[in-house]
Amino acid sequence: MTPDEVLAELTALTAGDVPTHGGATMAYVYDSGLAEVDRLAAEAQAAFQWTNALDPTAFPSVARIEDDLVGAAAALLGGGPGTVGTVTSGGTESCLLAVLAARSRWRAAHPEDHCRPQLLLPVTAHAAFRKAAHLFDLAVVDVGVDPVSCRVRPDDVAALLTDRTALVVVSAPSYPHGVLDPVAEIAALSAAAGVPCHVDACIGGWLLPHLDAGPFDLSVPGVSSLSVDLHKYGYAPKGVSVLLTADPELRQGHWFATAGWPGYPVVNPTLAGTRLAGPMAAAWAVHRWLGTEGYARLAREARTATEQLVAGLAAVPGVVVVGEPVTTLVALAGTDGLDVLHLADEMTARGWLLQPQPPFTQPDGSRLPATLHLTVTAATAGRVPALLADLADAARAAAQLPAPAPDPGLVAAAADLDPAALTVAEVDGLLAFAGLDGGPLPERMAPVHALVAALPRPVAERLLAGVLDRVYRPTQPVPPPPPR
Fold it and tell me: pTM for the full model?
């Protein structure tokens, strides 16, 4: 194949993907709406695509780029003289490292205690922290949130702090509902108990300083670390986040170094060895070009669009905004019998991607409703009237549909299942019974989301893993390229 033929085939593979630009995909991607940003990022990334950030002594340019990105984040987010930072592959890795560092600190302080340290986690905190607890063997202590404001309550945190608590997490803002947790109050409680407090500002850290939404960053007493993504509202390509740490000693808890093999000495500040320098270079270039004023302007544009959206939603039948969104994330719940899972499908049919979020039962038995998540970017700013018009039309259509109901036989059978004992073949059989027989996913996903919500959580998680397990199975061997 010629290079042009290869690229044409690669481009054809994207035919079924949601659009990454234009503001209609309201999850997963962040579009500045500026063609110059895309061009600059692509050229900077290409210039460093072969550079290995594993060894900054071999590639000192990478060390300069990382130091500049960390310095910019620290200056924006209240860092002090002792603040240090690490550039990671994304928000999940930043959160993983924050938990790993806190676990290392707890173990060093409790050398004779062989119990699992605890991670105090609001139920609205990002799932990356649950992944961290799974990987690094911490016990998650769920902290419920106010069912109306969806913010974690300081009194609930205070009641659950113990000698086993290794880390407390708060969100700025939370991903599910876009609300800002009471960072100052909870950080003060954590500090009084001698426990680190991590602020997950992965999605809001490059926005909130430009919106004057209140204290949330490293300038708040008691905040020990903070994560912020540059591939979100830093408008860089995917693969760049920063973990800031107020105390250099705390950062040492997630570093790895070994000279215990015959090869070269290995020192890694992140989970990966080989690290991609291209996304770092792209983030550096975009930051240098946009500058503080450019980011402030984009933040204001996205926030203004969010305010217009929230105001206009009052006229959309059957939906209500959950909580008080402080940045550019909005969660919609259904009212008057409208099911937001149907609304998501109706909006997909109209060319929009809104992210369904199932209902959730909190530790105290209270329920958070099913919602739709919308991420507003600068590229959405000119499309708010069209979005509202399509939402109103989709809401009327969704209101005419019966509530999605999973097969009662499957739900009853799942109640007696031990998900840990299920084999791959058994999961395949259950998925086939649910109508997911390995072919393309159904056009309407509301019944699938309803099934997930109805199943016991461990069973639902096992089946969801099974769905992706099937997606990542080649249907046939990849043919070799034709002879030249």
Answer: 0.95
